[in-house]
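U., I forgot to send this yesterday:
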Amino acid sequence: MALSENQKELTEKIIGAAIEVHREFGCGLKEEAYEAALAWELAQRGLKVERQVPCPVVYKGVVLCDSDDHPKRIDLLVEDSVVVELKAVSRNEPVFAAQCLTYLKMKDLQVGLVLNFGFPTLKEGIRHVLNDKTSHSPCLRSSVPSVLGDSNSSQP
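Result:
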C-alpha cells in the first residue's frame, strides 16, 4: 500500500513540525512535553490537530466501552486522517507500530506515524504505519520521507 500524494504531503508536514520541536527541545523530556509542543507547532502551520482523542475498543463491530470509558487515547489526530503516536524512549519497539495500527483500525484510517523523540536525531525515531485492510500486520515504511532529503522516500 502506497501513500497518496495528499497523505505524503500531510505526513511530511507533520514530520517537519516534529523535527522543529526536536531541534528546539532535543531528547530527554517526557512524552507530554513533545505532544504539547508538536500540537502547537502543527496548529501554527494551519493544520487541524486534536490531542488525546478517545479511541473506542471495538470487537467484531461491537463497541466494548461507552463514551465515558476510553481505555485508549490517540496522542494526536491531524486533519482527521493521520494518527500520530508519540514516544520519548531510547529504543524503537515493534509494539509501538502495532499500537498505532490498532488505532488506525479502530478509527478506520489508513496512515499513522510513530514519532520517537528519545533519540539524538528524530530521523532515527520516525516510522510510518499503514493500515492495509487486507493484511493483519502493520506495513512499516522504513525510509525517511523527502522532508529529510532521502531519495528513497517514495518507497513503501
